[in-house]
Amino acid sequence: MANITRERTGYLLRTLFELLRANPEGLKAAEALAALENTVTLTDYEAGEYPAGGRRFEKIVRFSTVDAVKAGWMLKSSGIWSVTEEGCKALQQFPQPGDFYREAVRLYQQWRKGQPVAEVPDAVDELVIEHEASITLETAEETAREQIHAHLAAMPPYEFQELVGSLLTAMGYHVAWIAPPGKDGGVDVLAFNDPLGTRPPRIKVQVKRNANSPRIDVMGMRSFMAVLGEGDVGLFVALSGFTKDAELEARTSHRRITLIDADQLIGLWTRHHAQLDDTARRRLPLKPVWFLAAED
């Protein structure tokens, strides 16, 4: 990371944290990086590219976030970046950018020394290699996730309903009905625990495919709850995800409701991939790729 000081790195990291703090539900990595770039003025060095390709700005920021994550200041979950309570405290405790970044590095090194596997690297170059391995895996996962999300979002609505029905079948449920085109009364898929539907509960599924829509809010959640009868279990599948208030509404309701966003859907799809039929696999064709994982 030549040509960039710890003060400058700390400034970029602190500014990123301030942006994330203003978005408590987190931001997608690409959105966070774009917001940061729009907030700061890049130097010529940061705006340039490495000889092997890739913008320096993005790598510098990602490099610094590795320390922040291990410091417990930042979370990266399914491509979403957010600041923890400890991270917010660090913003207050270390107002100077250089001090802020130095403390993140110190906490990273403290974490590293506590790892039982392998020797603790003494050379800075070895730490750089570790960070770069982590960044490579992180960006590969983000790219794959975005491509899968885009594929699902572009899928015709009724084909997406069929995909959800296929997943339920692979999970061992018996899909009795999938809504045809037209009004569905708030239920897109109906499933049971047995082929005849004699064993409760009855599972009512609502499917929202449009990933570019706002997250499902409390009103959307209550609208779905209204179609659930006594003994029904609700399954709400929404690529856009759910607001925290909507999640709270589902958790505290006397109705039994499970919420599934895009990443949870993909996780279930990969977990039950062996049980999917060929038609289902063609709807969402996935292939595993193995990376040498960085230590957690």
TrEMBL record:
Database matches in Pfam families: Mrr_cat (PF04471), Mrr_N (PF14338)
Biological-process GO terms, alphabetical: DNA restriction-modification system
Domain Restriction endonuclease type IV Mrr: 153-268
Domain Restriction system protein Mrr-like N-terminal: 14-92
Single Gene Ontology MF annotation: DNA binding
Keywords: Endonuclease, Hydrolase, Nuclease
PANTHER family on file: MRR RESTRICTION SYSTEM PROTEIN (PTHR30015), TYPE IV METHYL-DIRECTED RESTRICTION ENZYME ECOKMRR (PTHR30015:SF7)
Protein name, as recorded: Restriction endonuclease
Organism: Stenotrophomonas koreensis
